[in-house]
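question for whoever is on the cluster today: can someone run the full assembly for these? two chains, 341 residues total. i dont have access anymore since they changed the login thing
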Amino acid sequence: MARAAVPGRLSWRVGRLAEARQETPTARTLVLDVPGWPGHLPGQHVDVRLTAEDGYSAQRSYSLAAPAEGGRVELTVQSVPEGEVSAYLTGVYSTGDPVELRGPVGGWFVWRPAGTQPVLLVAGGSGIVPLMAMIRSRRAAGSRVPFRLIYSVRTPGDVYYADELRRRARDDAGLDVTFVYTRAVPEGWPHPPRRIGVTVVNTNGWPPALTPDCYVCGPTGFVETVADILVALGHDPRRVRTERFGPTGG
Amino acid sequence: MPEQLDLGPHLDGNALAGPLREIFAVDVTAATSRCAACGQAGALAGLHVYASAPGMVARCPSCEEVVLRMVRTPDAAWLDLRGAVALRIPM
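^ ran it for u. tokens below:
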């Protein structure tokens, strides 16, 4: 729907696929060229709209995975069973193809690189995407704020950005990364598969006395569990920011 | 609202960011709203959002009463803020 852009209000833009990277067998990172992109904060997302020739259109929200580089933005899309939008974006969508998007949107689940509080990031599955944007932005901004990431996945093969996370955990001073595997663990791992619980959050997070900013992102049940644990451990609920990836996505 | 009422899975108010930015010039999901039913105050982003209804229905995370409803038609947006006493919008 072409409509003159109103300054300050959100309008649809057309982006084109510049390159793509396969993160796991079912997740794909899309690097899009979006002329006139206004920039964004880590944690913000975009709405993506696909329109078929018969006029049928479907819309989904995706988190931005990295800081913007000029008009270049990155999304990581998880293919969900019977998800019409994600199936297209992770499958047939090819270099040079257009897609409509609007954003950035969301002003609450964001980390500002000028922030000074320690940060705890807790990701469940594809919930890593906006948190990875924060990790990447921290380094890009030269921030020294200490970050801890707890990343829960089913198996080692489900880890997004695996090589980069390994490298950053080694090279980004002040970044700690902890993995929780719920179905299968790497060889030699000290624990059997387990779900995230009080012990993991208490051991690998920050003490509430440091008043860290906590960001929790993942499926609804995961987010509720972790947010409850953080509050029970004594974290101020106002410092626990959550984003749920629902079953309605796709 | 009885607790045993099963409303099914929900998203959260972050999902309202795009639809509301179509109407408002600033992000409203970071605004604090106070629930008209129970008085709980919190970020709009923290509301429970049910998107499988026609449009989006946002409920208070504390009492599950409807705070906000939004329906987008091809030529209009319907915004019903029945359950919010007030919004405090950071500027």
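summary bc i know u wont read the tokens: Residues 11-88 of chain B form one domain. The two ends of chain B are 34 Å apart (CA to CA).
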